[in-house]
Amino acid sequence: MLVGCFTLILFRRDLHTISFLVGNGLCEGINLILKNIVKESRPMVRAYQYTDYGMPSSHSQMAWFFAAYTILFVLFRLHHNRDSVFEMLWKVSTLLSVVVMAALVMYSRVYLLYHSWAQVLVGAVLGVVLGVSWFAVVHLLLSPFFPIVVSMSVFELLMIRDTSLIPNILWFEYTNARTENRTRSRKLVPMKSQ
To answer: Boundaries of each Phosphatidic acid phosphatase type 2/haloperoxidase domain copy (predicted)?
Structure first.
């Protein structure tokens, strides 16, 4: 997952993506601290496990962190055409998908005997609380400073960008790429005929 996040940051270079990765790191750090405080063993001890502590489940916590953050991001940040049936359908399907995936991760940890139900439920609650909290921090506290951050020379050099004011980044990038392709193809036609 870490490789995927870094790849996403490398290609997106967006402060929201970077903020999400920071939130993931904080969530994982909190989980590690809690495991070493609670020190509750797993239902089945395996010889090859890194740690024998299972409370709270880090997989469950991270899955529900992702689900909570994604749900809030879709509901509060992505809005293009609110009256569109298609937009409502893809939002509902996205929200249901992340909830189902988080629930499947939670169930799989119990099914494989890596965690008890109590461990995955505590992980889920903690993940939701941290996901909601981190979204609030990013959306309410950090986002107002994003324009200042991206105007700094080091962030300009790294081509870090802020897409906070764009209501639907997917639509924005799609229409801009389509317009740019049309412009470039018109420029290429006269060059090919010479």
So the answer is: 17-135
